[in-house]
Amino acid sequence: MLARFLVGLVLAAGCGAELTDDKKQNLVPDSGLTIDAAIDALPPVDARPCTGGDARMQDPSGTCFILFTGPKIRADAEADCVALGGHLATVKSATSNTTVTALVANTPSAFLGATDLTTENTFLWPDGSALTYTNWRTGEPNNGGTGATYQEDCVVIQGMLGGVWDDRPCAPPPAGSGSYAYVCSY
Prior knowledge:
Layout: H1 2-14, H2 21-25, H3 35-41, E1 55-58, E2 64-72, H4 74-83, E3 87-88, H5 94-103, E4 110-119, E5 122-124, E6 154-158, E7 164-168, E8 180-185
Parallel strand pairs: 4-8
Antiparallel strand pairs: 1-2, 2-8, 3-8, 4-5, 4-6, 6-7
């Protein structure tokens, strides 16, 4: 029905017709669909092009995911993403995870945006929302590692393992991991 409304609107505009208030109220008869209601029903559109990084992909919802392969600690990776107008990637559906998996297919591990830095084992996205979709590797998250200073508080996606998630250090611990490729989204 929305498609029929939009086609009518485009045809009317293209023919130079002026839409009077009564026509605006009845573009799709018996639907109650007005221009204002139709516009409000449309999902928000981010007009920025999906550019930058070493590779990029857009998922069907329009979210732009950008891969940076140069390894960084999480704080520096997040700062880079914020400078682009986004954050480290938020993956809230299997569709988005499939998109990001394709993007990082040749990357061992890349930071996503989720962390449990505030409360152990309560992972949150950069906007503070809880994870409603996950793709944890079997046995993860496990806060693995040894020693009092070793904490796995950040989430990485493992492209070479089919897009499963793992918790990893956010910064290099004494043992020496914590710098990874990273994916931004907006």
